[in-house]
Amino acid sequence: MTTTLLEVDGIETFYGASQALFGMSFDVREREVVTLIGRNGMGKSTTVKSIMGLLAPRHGSVRMAGEEVTGRAAHQVACSGLGLVPEGRRIFPNLTVRENLVATAGNRLGSASPWTLARVYDMFPRLQERERNLGSNLSGGEQQMLAIGRALMTNPRLLILDEATEGLAPLVRAEIWKCLARLKDEGLSLIVIDKNIEPLLRLADRHCIVEKGRVVWRGSSDELRQQPRLLQEYVGI
What we know:
The protein has 237 residues and is of the alpha/beta class.
């Protein structure tokens, strides 16, 4: 039976006096891809921030590999094995591609086959071609590849991708989906948030539909395909 890697249990998160999450709960197992699906403003990105220590839930629990990480600083959460590709990429514009990749690199959990520059360049050859270019001089697609590569260089056990294909050209989006499929094949656990439902259905093992700060449905790709009304009701497609 696959071990549970991440457990999010009943977290409630606020922005000042405004509550954004109302008992958000789901889990991710080892070697599994899970999605968070829903309209904008339903709490998906707030969930990511709450997991990663960028927001502190007032109630509930986040556990990584059985270890409580709720309330820890973001860098401490990252050291537990969580990696993030944030919405908007947020690469360092004044560092080169190489400098972006090595800035936070490390094998803190002692992976037997860690991510290195060579592995990242093998996945994204364009980054090697642009190795000496500043982040600000990259295209949107190249910046997204760099954001993914930078997160992989921290050698996470679980990688979270928040809108990884947003605003990208179709050919670049296809390359990103191919990259995620390869990461899944290599056994990396993923949480993926994206508006492109069909690629999510092909990639993921399980889906969580998020509505008003809580999970209202969860199931497999086959189960979701058999209930198109769910996507119409909660995603609006």
